[in-house]
Amino acid sequence: MRRTEGKLADGRQILYFDDSTDAPARTAVDPRDLAPAENTSQIRRDPLTGEWVALAAHRQTRTYKPPAGLCPLCPSTDGRPTEIPEPGYDVVVFENRFPSFAQHATAATATGLVPAAPGVGRCEVVCFTDDHSVSFGALPVSRIRTVVDVWADRTAALSNLPGVEQVFPFENRGDEIGVTLSHPHGQVYGYPFVTPRTARMLEVAAAYQAEHGRPVMGDVLAAERAEGTRVLVDSAHWTAFVPAAARWPVEVHLVPHRQVPDLPALTDAERDDFAEVYRRVLGMLDGLYERELPYIAAWHQAPVNTGRDLAWLHLQVFSILRTADRVKYLAGSESAMAVWINDVTPEDLAVRLSSSRPSHRTVSGASQ
């Protein structure tokens, strides 16, 4: 992989990650006339739950569902510059133009019952391919492998930024999920706090470790592999399974067999294996309803400064689609009380996923 750094017209960083060193040199200049981005993000702490909430009103003006011919994530062409100046690319990362968190956040600090602070952090966009019409699961294994290295690179880089306490790479796909740009892409968030979900998982992991002397994820992984009824893929370094207490009608966890805190800690062999396993899982997901499944793919990894001995890196992929044409909406129990009620049993989902057939196409001209 080759990494090339550049700047966009308003000073934001852009990074090109090429599958091979034989790729063209990345020297294109952004010709747009863009004013420096302003950011008024702030965070406020809910005094009733102790959780931080981000406020980013400037995001109301972000790009919303443009036609394919005006996609800002496609390569630039003569007369139509985009967020990516080059006429083609493999994988690209750039600072979000409308970030929820930024290093230059300037919101005023408040005091009192509801503490507030600038939303200092970082938000990046990760474009997986310059092909607007393809899905992540249709990428060749070699490209998925490049993306794994990109996630690791960005996790390490954002972890070293001032104010960042947790790094979260993720992908949203599909209209039902609320995606506003259909080009295949994901994001990386650098939060100025440890997220509520991660904080709770670390609490449980600490209590389990104290009582049993073992990591809770290690025991979950061993139990799933031993029972086997919910396992979708069991490879040399990873196991993909439907969790026994799945919240969502479609949910899969991909867990490495070795406890590592984050993506940078994965070995080359583990990264190679993940690319193969993940592509197989995405094929199952797209074959479930014989359509591209709307999903969220979320990396759970250790915070920057705490819980690194307790966390166990894993990827959670889930969908709100409970049938081919019916969405699971979060009702009162889920939204207000955080008590989940799933309409699908994990065991039934595992059987259906195991028997589903991939329905995606492969990037034209790309190797498998």
UniProtKB/TrEMBL annotation:
The keyword Transferase applies. Pfam families: GalP_UDP_tr_C (PF02744), GalP_UDP_transf (PF01087). Residues 40-194 form the Galactose-1-phosphate uridyl transferase N-terminal domain. It is an enzyme of class 2 (transferase). Coiled coil: none annotated. Keywords: Carbohydrate metabolism, Galactose metabolism, Metal-binding, Nucleotidyltransferase, Transferase, Zinc. Residues 19-41 are annotated as: Disordered. Its cofactor is Zn(2+). It catalyses: alpha-D-galactose 1-phosphate + UDP-alpha-D-glucose = alpha-D-glucose 1-phosphate + UDP-alpha-D-galactose. One of its GO terms (molecular function) is nucleotidyltransferase activity. Residues 206-360 form the Galactose-1-phosphate uridyl transferase C-terminal domain. InterPro entries: GalP_UDPtransf1, GalP_UDPtransf1_His-AS, GalP_Utransf_C, GalP_Utransf_N, HIT-like_sf. Pathway: Carbohydrate metabolism; galactose metabolism. Its EC number is 2.7.7.12. It comes from the Bacteria. Belongs to the galactose-1-phosphate uridylyltransferase type 1 family. This is Galactose-1-phosphate uridylyltransferase. It comes from Actinokineospora xionganensis. The lineage of its organism: Bacteria, Bacillati, Actinomycetota, Actinomycetes, Pseudonocardiales.
